[in-house]
């Protein structure tokens, strides 16, 4: 498979490493400083465009790549929800996008456990649910896209109505109180050092706490998942998602 990378930062470089190790080739790399490559012959010679940039530029990158007739895998967070309807319509009319807020296979499994636990907890209203997410301090968006997805599944199970997010920066940051959430699910976002990503869903009762947690050891899991998604996208069309990769979970 031939890949064009849009965004050659930490994720772009790691995706290149994984793609090459799986026998693929990167035929074009576009970053902020060589935008003239976008849409050129090398760009268009790829089977799939893999886009990991920034929340500000992702939407226009995806639309421009669609306009070049390219299939796109995007992992950029913080842009998709605002454009969901338009993207869906484009994909019903011939475009192809595989987007996920988290390409880690482990997080995909964790999300399935989260949905199952939320269904169980619906019968036990004495527990207060909250989400903690911890990421490195370079991360531009908060709460993380993964925390928002986890919250969406808890809300869909009927445990809360919407969420409210709290940002905690600095190494000594304490978990703030969640008073005044008014029936909303609190998401606490911590930004510390170089943490690759930790997500914890807590159900706090009077007598005990039930918590489930996923901790990424490095960013490699995201890169492997993004390349698996690109392989899938090369042979499929439309609006694609992680559940298409793992049909039985
Ligand atoms: P990064 O800052 O290291 O790299 C982003 C790169 O994009 C930079 O090199 C920047 O110059 C480039 N860029 C910015 N605007 C551009 C444009 N218009 N065209 C081309 N390139 C442009 O960030 P990163 O750690 O690689 O993460 C990128 C995105 O991926 C973030 O939104 C992050 O939250 C997300 N992310 C998603 C997953 C996932 O599994 N979905 C995993 C990790 C990170």
Topology:
Elements: E1 2-6, H1 10-21, E2 25-30, H2 41-44, E3 48-51, H3 58-67, E4 71-74, H4 80-92, E5 97-99, H5 105-121, E6 128-135, H6 145-156, E7 163-169, E8 185-191, E9 198-204, E10 209-215, H7 220-234, E11 239-240, H8 242-245
Parallel strand pairs: 1-2, 1-3, 3-4, 4-5, 5-11, 6-8, 7-8
Antiparallel strand pairs: 6-9, 9-10
Bound molecules: nicotinamide-adenine-dinucleotide (NAD).
Nicotinamide-adenine-dinucleotide is lined by residues 6-12, 30-32, 52-55, 57, 61, 75-77, 100-103, 219, 222.
Estimated structural class: alpha/beta
| Total of DSSP H or I helical runs spanning 4+ residues | 8
Beta-strand percentage range: 15-25%
Tally the beta strands: 11
Summarize model confidence as the mean pLDDT.
Answer: 94
Assembly state of the chains shown: single chain
Each distinct ligand: nicotinamide-adenine-dinucleotide
Give the fraction of residues assigned to helices: 25-40%
Neighbour order of strands in the largest sheet: 2-1-3-4-5-11
Order of helices and strands: EHEHEHEHEHEHEEEEHEH
Coarse shape: elongated
Rg value: 19 Å
End-to-end Cα distance, whole Å, is 27 Å
Major sheet summary line: 6 strands, parallel
Uncertain spans: none
């Amino acid at each position: 498979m031939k890949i064009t990378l849009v965004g050659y930062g930490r994720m772009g470089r790691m995706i290149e490493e994984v793609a090459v190790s799986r026998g693929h080739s990167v035929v074009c790399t576009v970053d902020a400083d060589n935008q003239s490559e976008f849409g050129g012959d090398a760009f268009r010679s790829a089977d799939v465009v893999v886009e990991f940039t920034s929340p500000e530029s992702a939407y226009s990158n995806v639309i421009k790549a669609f306009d070049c007739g390219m299939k796109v895998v995007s992992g950029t967070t913080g842009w998709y929800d605002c454009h969901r309807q338009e993207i869906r319509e484009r994909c019903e009319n011939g475009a192809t996008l595989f987007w996920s807020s988290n390409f880690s296979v482990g997080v995909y499994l964790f999300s399935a456990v989260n949905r199952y636990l939320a269904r169980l907890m619906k019968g036990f209203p004495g527990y207060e649910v909250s989400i903690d997410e911890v990421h490195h301090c370079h991360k531009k968006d908060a709460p993380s896209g993964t925390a928002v997805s986890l919250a969406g599944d808890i809300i869909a199970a009927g445990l809360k109505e919407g969420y409210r997010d709290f940002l905690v920066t600095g190494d000594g940051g304490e978990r703030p109180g969640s008073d005044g959430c008014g029936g909303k699910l609190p998401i606490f976002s911590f930004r510390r050092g170089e943490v690759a990503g930790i997500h914890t869903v807590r159900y706090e009762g009077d007598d005990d706490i039930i918590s489930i947690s996923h901790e990424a050891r490095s960013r490699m899991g995201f890169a492997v998942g993004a390349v698996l998604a690109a392989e899938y996208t090369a042979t499929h069309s439309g609006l694609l998602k992680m559940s298409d990769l793992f049909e039985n979970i």
